[in-house]
Specification:
The protein is built from six helices and eight strands. It is an alpha/beta fold. The two termini are 16 Å apart. Bound molecules: S-adenosylmethionine (SAM). This is Class I SAM-dependent methyltransferase.
Length: 209
């Protein structure tokens, strides 16, 4: 008999984390069409921001402007705005300041599958940008974070405050190129399979993965 395989998208991962940690507040940076992800998130308090928002409940602003003077904190922040490494790094650092105790940051598009897909400026239709460089930088420099990337939906990065063994060697984002990513990605990004993630976080799982 043919067993059907479940594909996990960002909304599935985010909903598993919200359920697993009993979270009640969610921020999405970069919403685009809310039907793609935002509307699928099951959380009591939801805030979305996007400078190109067409819907009134999604704030029309950039992440940098939104974070200026912000007092609110969130349980889960999903970073999926401008996919340039310097911007993603800034979004992660600002999100860490606005994360509740035991909160989680989720970052999309951390695993480009070819060199073109991660080029900035953008050349391809399917595009991850070079967000992976921001991730690599934090894996090399921030011992007080716990970070892994789930190998599904172009790479779903998960960050919590905690502890990690730093990735060596330490190089600057400017020196990171795709061949460095390709040769080092398993440990640089700390990649988990979807089964490993489900085993760790979704106690009620009965899926075939
Ligand atoms: C990849 S789309 C988001 C997709 C959506 N989160 C999803 O899961 O399908 C990226 C969005 O980020 C928005 N964006 C671009 N620059 C931004 C910035 N500086 N701050 C926040 N959002 C930004 C764009 O307008 C675009 O709609």
């Amino acid at each position: 008999m043919h067993q059907q395989t479940t594909i996990y998208y960002r909304s599935d991962i985010i909903n598993i984390l919200i359920k697993s940690f009993n979270y009640s507040s969610y921020l999405e940076i970069g919403v685009d069409d809310p039907a793609l992800n935002f509307d699928k998130i099951d959380c009591i308090i939801k805030q979305g921001i996007d400078p190109n928002s067409l819907r009134r409940d999604i704030l029309k602003t950039t992440s940098d402007d939104y974070f200026k003077g912000l007092k609110d904190k969130f349980d889960l922040i999903f970073i999926d705005g401008l996919h340039h490494c310097q911007q993603v790094l800034r979004d992660i650092k600002n999100s860490l300041k606005h994360l509740n105790q035991n909160g989680t940051i989720v970052c999309h598009d951390m695993l480009p599958s070819n060199v073109i897909m991660q080029l900035v400026p953008r050349l391809s239709n399917i595009w991850t940008g070079d967000c992976w460089k921001a991730w690599g930088h934090l894996r090399m420099t921030r011992q007080n974070l716990s970070m892994f990337v789930i190998n599904t939906d172009y790479g779903i990065g998960v960050i919590k405050k905690g502890f990690q063994k730093l990735y060596v060697p330490r190089i600057s984002m400017a020196k990171m190129d795709y061949s460095f990513f390709y040769s080092n990605k398993k440990d640089l990004m700390n990649i988990l399979t979807i089964s490993e993630f489900i085993e760790l976080f979704d106690k009620s799982a009965t899926y075939n993965v």
